[in-house]
């Protein structure tokens, strides 16, 4: 996708003015301290989500509610779709103005596949990897996409009687797999391999 489709602002509206630290509700002014606090608070929120999960409707509201539950105590914009451009590894994610339509399209496709509910273990992991790659390429939120996506995928897997051993997948492996899945010609093979290796039957 050409850069003409992007709204390339000089100032990131999610940052504290004059800083490289994200705006937050904790009064923290430096990224290193914010990252530590975010990890602790979101881990506690994840534990609560496991006990009291978001209603699994598998639509845009469902994904946003997960993000809000994970990060609502940290970021004032938690649970709202990204409204600035962002990227990783020198490559921009989907233009922010295209996010609502893209999320709805991907999740409507998931619904048409009956939420993958009747698939065998290997095939479920393959299709789950595809949807993980699609959502990651959209990158709906300014921060916290990976964690929100994993919770979403866990709820999807539970419907089919499966789970994923996320702790056994390194961040480096996941980043590489997701990067290949968001190229101009997406390659989902690494993501598929990771999920097929770390899926379990409940």
Write the layout of secondary structure elements.
Elements: H1 31-51, H2 60-71, E1 87-88, E2 91-92, H3 99-112, H4 121-138, H5 145-160, E3 162-164, H6 171-181, H7 189-197, E4 199-201
Antiparallel strand pairs: 1-2, 3-4
Helix pairs in contact: 1-2, 2-5, 3-4, 4-5, 4-6, 4-7, 6-7
Index terms:
single chain; 202 residues; mainly alpha; Fic-like fold; two-stranded antiparallel ribbon; 7 helices
What does this 3D model show about the protein?
- The chain has 202 residues and is mainly alpha-helical.
- The protein has one domain (3-201): Orthogonal Bundle (Fic-like fold).
- It has seven helices and four strands.
- The strands form two sheets. A two-stranded antiparallel ribbon has the order 1-2. A two-stranded antiparallel sheet has the order 3-4.
- A hairpin with a 2-residue loop joins strand 1 and strand 2 (91-92).
- Helix 1 packs across helix 2 (60-71), helix 3 (99-112) runs antiparallel to helix 4 and helix 6 (171-181) runs antiparallel to helix 7.
- It is globular, with a radius of gyration of 17 Å.
- The model has no long low-confidence stretch (mean pLDDT 95).
């Amino acid at each position: 996708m050409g850069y003409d489709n992007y709204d390339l602002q000089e100032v990131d509206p999610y940052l504290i003015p004059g800083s490289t630290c994200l705006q937050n509700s904790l009064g923290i002014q430096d990224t290193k301290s914010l990252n530590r606090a975010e990890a602790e608070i979101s881990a506690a929120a994840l534990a609560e989500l496991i006990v009291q999960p978001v209603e699994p409707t598998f639509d845009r509201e469902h994904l946003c509610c997960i993000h809000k539950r994970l990060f609502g105590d940290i970021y004032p914009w938690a649970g709202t779709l990204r409204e600035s451009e962002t990227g990783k590894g020198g490559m921009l994610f989907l233009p922010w103005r295209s996010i609502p339509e893209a999320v709805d399209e991907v999740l409507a496709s998931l619904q048409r596949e009956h939420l993958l509910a009747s698939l065998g273990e290997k095939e479920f992991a393959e299709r789950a990897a595809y949807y993980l790659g699609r959502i990651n390429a959209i990158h709906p939120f300014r921060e916290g996409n990976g964690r929100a996506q994993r919770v979403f995928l866990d709820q999807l897997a539970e419907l089919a009687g499966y789970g994923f051993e996320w702790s056994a997948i390194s961040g480096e492996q996941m980043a590489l797999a997701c990067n290949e899945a968001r190229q101009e010609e997406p390659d989902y093979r690494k993501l598929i391999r990771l999920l097929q290796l770390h899926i379990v039957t409940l």
